[in-house]
């Protein structure tokens, strides 16, 4: 079987050519932009504390922290919405960073934990943990999610990286989708055996930050922290890698080490996010693209922007989910899929699906 | 060189590949053996000869009931589902010119599943719209959406695949959402459906399948020639006088409806549509794509029937759904194939 002339080939225009298309070309603009994004993030966090099935005025939200008086509104803010918002912040930031790392290291615009089967690997591991080992604490799911994400990432790397041209966009996307389908099928297979496992699992799989235990957040915090540090430090190496493996090597970089470190960072971030909130797709896909449109191809900026924008996207999606389908809620994983899938389709419909 | 025989009547002329005919014969015999075995084995064992005599009208009432009302329709549903999935998978892979494509990956099965699962969990399955009807409608709707979204002055292979991956991701999120909205026993029922099961399939499943296949199978085989020419690339196909987009639309429509009827009868049995064409190509050797189509159909039939047999006998007395068996059998094969396809650069 032959692939026709549609094959998108790696073509990386020089960094300067692309910076001109960035919305924030100067370093000063980028710093100001990041500050603006942080302010927007703060606004989203306050919104996330205030908006919901019970609307709470902002003055009341602030009073819950400064003058707590045991009223319903104050309890809702501190007991329900604060943990939810914190988890949203952390998970969103982690997913954004994970997407940026993965897109950088694979030089692939479609890289993302959800559609490439990393989340499915984590889910499969969690299902096995519930079904085979009888694990029932969500905090323990975290370890299995991390393990599953890591194994799936290794498998994907071994499969998609094989052959001529390494992991081209379509090869990676297709291998990931196939791996995803396989893991989902095996997960469903386990779930048909046991209604109890299904009962636990069906609320975990949608990806939600509501009613999650903040204890989980503490137990995954070291992983996410390590992942974020790796991501923030990887910028320079990813920039060199973006010029091609040969150029990166001639610049004195060990490409293998960059891959291994970024891969480890990615697994920590994606696995930790799945562990804290269940599988959430498309945040890692969309956010780095928006960051790239703002600051150009420089990963030293893309990563921090992706972290902040990821947190913003996740909080906005969560708030949308709260008000979209009253009296119930749409879980945040559903909202990000509804928002992100059209973006993915738009991305692949563009005439040239160039490597990054 | 492949040997061919040419059959001519006044209105039709067929060139038949001897190798394909031989393979079809062998697969047909194997399927018949599996069918006899499937009808004979179970909680109430019946000897193969008795099965045959029961089919021809003899036998006592209990045997007749078990054979004619329980096991035969189930086995026939397996065969017909396998035929539909095998041929649909082959068409999708050839159309996308990519060996890793199957209706499971590009959202067709997901469309059927979303509709069916929504009905089982949230709706009323005894209403006018039955689960099979919902599944068929879902598959067709997903196919139409996929075609429109991938359209850009034509539908090219790789765009179709990537858009399909996006559509599938969205639909799977929808399925997961529906699962959180229902009672657990309905959700469990929907899960068994989602894995693909042939439990309690009767003649009411066989007849619609048989009817649809009677129309779609000749259509698919007739379109095989165009599929073959499309393989040569759009420009060559155009030069040979093929209406490229129209041919692609027709083939896509046939493959989507074939997937839809198969899924509506037995649920989205994992990876049959993916693997049957691969096995078919392997045993066919250098046969052209249009020759592979019927072999893929026969392979699919044998695959589903044997998987169901294994699921029933190896996990007696309760058995496991056929989709679990195909997923487990497929998994290692699948990973090897994925790596091989990437190594050869066949996936793009």
The CATH topology of chain A corresponds to ABC transporter involved in vitamin B12 uptake, BtuC
Mass-distribution shape of chain B: globular
Return the CATH class of chain B.
Mainly Alpha
Q: Rg of chain A from C-alpha positions?
A: 20 Å
The mean pLDDT of chain B is 86
**Structure classification of chain A:** mainly alpha
Secondary structure class of chain B reads mainly alpha
Q: How many DSSP-defined strands of chain B?
A: 2
The CATH class of chain A is Mainly Alpha
Number of helices of chain A: 15
Describe the structure in your own words:
The complex is a heterodimer of chains A (356) and B (348). With 356 residues, chain A is an all-alpha fold. Chain A has one domain: ABC transporter involved in vitamin B12 uptake, BtuC (Orthogonal Bundle), CATH 1.10.3470.10. Chain A contains 15 helices and no strands. Chain A has helices spanning 15-19, 27-50, 58-66, 72-106, 118-131, 138-160, 169-193, 195-205, 214-233, 235-242, 245-250, 255-277, 283-295, 299-324, 332-349. Chain A is globular and about 65 Å long. The two termini of chain A are 27 Å apart. The model of chain A is unreliable at 1-19 (pLDDT under 50). With 348 residues, chain B is an all-alpha fold. Chain B has one domain (18-344): ABC transporter involved in vitamin B12 uptake, BtuC (Orthogonal Bundle), CATH 1.10.3470. Chain B contains 13 helices and 2 strands. A two-stranded antiparallel ribbon of chain B has the order 1-2. The longest helix of chain B is centred in the N-terminal third of the chain and has 36 residues, at 61-96.
